[in-house]
Amino acid sequence: MSEREHIELTPEEERENTKAVITHVLPFAIWLTLMVWLGDPSGWKYAARSMAGLGLLLAFRPWRWYPRLQLKNIPVAIGVGVLIFFVWIGLEIPWVAENAPAVTEWYDRLFVDITKPFKLRELYDIGNGVMAPYEVISEGEHAGLHVYDPRVTGWLNFWVHMFGTSVVIAVIEEFFFRGFLYRWMLGSPFFKIDAGKLHWPMLLVISCFFGIEHFEWMAGIICGIAFGLLYIKTQDIWAAIIAHGTTNFLLGLYVIKYNAYQFW
Question: How far apart are CA 165 and CA 88, in angstroms?
Fold first, then answer.
């Protein structure tokens, strides 16, 4: 890897740099802390995380260090988001699982749940002898339904969940991983590092960090590379955010339409 670039700063610029770093890191760190602290994110907990994340973004305003969205980048951003959605679900969709079960099996063994290498997704009885890769409520009026099912949470809670995953976390993660971490590892202050500078080793490292944050870790790595390249090529952080949000929004619709709650 090339030597990390360092720009000499005045005391005032040092203070701005410190503020910029905190502004990018703290929302992400608090989001992760809430994940651990709140535990199971069902019911009101995911909504609480989403609203807390939104509050952090509005309080810290990391977009202060970036140009405005370039409208010309919206179509390609949406296109990348759609492409990554298909990458995420592609080898586990019912058609592939039914017609090429070996492909789905080896994908699950090799590229899903890095904590359990070479093992399949765990299956659970969701009623009537049907096995699925997610658990459902075992008793009561909602027996047989997933905790994220709108019939359990209510539609308001469902759309808050969709807002959280498609907007809040997309914004928090893109400002942290692509806007801050990638450029910070290239040099300091990170906000003065050329956003269009492509450094493959660093991009791969950051994408791996991003990938292992997700259960479908290989899809996450591919996703990280795609969003990173999109940011580098357009030099528009909002393009990466739109792509990320598009992927997550489509994934949420897919989850509800096909009861694919393993992706949530």
Answer: 15
Element (H, E) at 132: strand 131-132
At 174, list the tokens: 């893109």
Q: Are strands 5-6 and 187-188 parallel, antiparallel or unpaired?
A: parallel
Report the DSSP beta bridge partners of residue 70.
none
CA distance 60 to 226: 26
Backbone phi, then psi, for 125, in 5-degree steps?
-80, 115
Tell me phi and psi for residue 209, to 5 degrees: -55, -45
β-pairing, 131-132 vs 124-125, is: antiparallel
Residues 186-232: pLDDT tens digits? 988 999 999 999 999 999 999 999 999 999 999 999 999 999 999 99
Q: Are 179 and 193 in contact (CB under 8 A)?
A: no
Four-point Cα dihedral 129, 133, 137, 141, nearest 10: -60
The 3 state secondary structure assigned to 32-98 is: HHHHHHHCCCCCHHHHHHHHHHHHHHHHHCHHHHCCCCCHHHHHHHHHHHHHHHHHHHHHHCHHHHH
| 114 close to 210: Cβ distance less than 8 angstroms | no
Give the start-end residues of each E strand in 134-238: 187-188
Find where tokens 């990280």 sit: 224
Indicate the SS3 state at residue 124. Answer: strand
Contact, 81 vs 245, CB < 8 A? yes
- pTM comes to 0.93
